[in-house]
Amino acid sequence: MPPTAPPPTTTTVRPRPVPAARRHPAPHGTGGRPPARERARTALAYAGPALLGYLVVRLFGTLVLAKWAHVQHRGLWPVLAKSWDSNWYLDIADHGYEHALHAGELNDLAFFPLYPVLVKAVAAVTPGSRASVALVLAVGFSLVAACGVFAVGDRLHGRRTGTWLTVLWAALPVGVVQWMGYTESLFTALTAWALYCALTRRWLWAGSLAALAGLTRPTGIAIAAAVSLAALAALVRARRWEWRPVAGGLVAPVGWCAYVAWVGVRIGRWDGYFAVQKVWDNQWDGGIGTLRDMRGLLVYANRPPLFLVLVTAVLIAAGALYLLSLADRQPLVLLVFTGALLVVVLGSGGVYFPRARFLVPGFPLLLPVALMLARARRTVTALVLGAATLSSAWLGAYMLLVWNGPP
Questions:
Q1: Per the confidence metrics, is the pTM higher than 0.85?
Q2: Could you tell me how far CA 2 lies from the centroid of its own chain?
Q3: Angle, CA 182 vertex, CA 223 and CA 145 arms, to 5°
Q4: Burial, 299: exposed, middle or buried (Cβ in 10 Å; 0-12, 13-18, 19+)?
Q5: d(CA 161, CA 375)
Q6: What is the pLDDT of residues 182-214, one digit of tens each?
Q7: Band of the pLDDT at 309, cuts 50, 70, 90?
Q8: 3-state DSSP assignment of residue 180
């Protein structure tokens, strides 16, 4: 008799979980994808913890500021909507730009146009003053920026890191400017989503958003350089012709270059914009002025102003975090952006006190800290974020109500 084959062994096969998108077939005409509204709802739910954390930090800071302002018999709305640079943007929205450069006089051509244009356009179709519209836009753009910050962190290191990155950005020492009539929220929103689009190889979107960022702040040159160089690197790696990286890389610097050129034409000299910046005592000197100011504060000053000490600490921390970012081998587009931002901010020989505010859009510098918090115990994470939230609230109120100067 032939040998009998052993009976086959039975194995239990567990069914693989079916993704939600497959459990519920998409409606006809969507190509198998859920409707845009459903996708947006899902994305917001996914980013919900990050947005909630952002709102908690900023609302707490606003409550502290409101209480402090009440003690000083001052209103919260004027402090946030009509102070310092906010008035320059509102004046541009009301009357447009100056036509000439007058020696020794500060000039509104130093302020880039996108934010005042948006304020004027929205105020034309909504009730309320332009100052109120400017403040509402800033708060709205801060939420868009928070979503972008989360998207970048989640793309690189997962949801937990993206959430802590967003909360850390909210709890910056000068995070209060995110809810002021300033351009930091708009610029960060455009920058964050431009970086995300570059990370996901959406080059046309990345270039377009970088161009808009270039119409928002002088530091728009940093995101333009980042997107252009990242697009060039992607083209080299592909080793074949692709028109989208080329188009995105070429579009990215258009906004910044267009405004600088327009200022030159408006005042009749090729270096017009840089002449305007010189009137504001803001020239690039390679960092000599920054080092001189730091030495004066930390070495020679007997009682340096607290706010300037804070600015110095932020600048030193930013340099250290950039070194950590290099060690972590962050993607090229992030390293170029934060590196260029630091070169512009630290290399400027102008006024010293707004340098911490200028670094608010540099959220990728916080990625090493967010990664550490994502890996730490919950107690450590809670203590660090709690301390950051308390210090941000107190320092923000101090900056606006005690410090005798612009933030």
A1: yes
A2: 77
A3: 50
A4: exposed
A5: 9
A6: 999 999 999 999 999 999 999 999 999 999 999
A7: very high
A8: coil
